[in-house]
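The authors assume throughout that readers already know how a fold can be written as discrete tokens. In essence, backbone conformation is discretised, so a fold becomes a row of integers matching the chain in length. A single example would do more here than another paragraph of explanation. For illustration, here is how one protein appears when written out as sequence plus structure tokens:

…
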Amino acid sequence: MRNTTTGITPWLEVRRGKSAIAFYKAAFGAVEVHHVESPDGEIVSRMSLDGAQFWLSDESPEHGNISPEGSKGCTVRIILTVADPDAVFNRALAAGASQVYPLSEEHGWRVGRVVDPFGHHWEIGRQIAH
């Protein structure tokens, strides 16, 4: 029997996949660790943020994979826990994200929320030491 660790990895559907890769690199310092591109330019990419991974691909409505832009909303928020939420939050804004709510301290966390240019919501924060 294999020793397998359970995990959950988000897969983001986007429009303009190549632009999304560039945004996540600029906003969060993400590194692309896997890339597949079809002949018509649609992409699938696995990204890493200091070892925390997520996937992204161009939306494909024919397979039920619809981006927030295609569905006019987003049903999942991504919680990005980092050592310096202020620096990451400001970097995301500088890269083109929009503020949903500012960084503040509540419920034992320093946290704020942005929406990226592709419609995905990111809560950026860290737990406050007690």
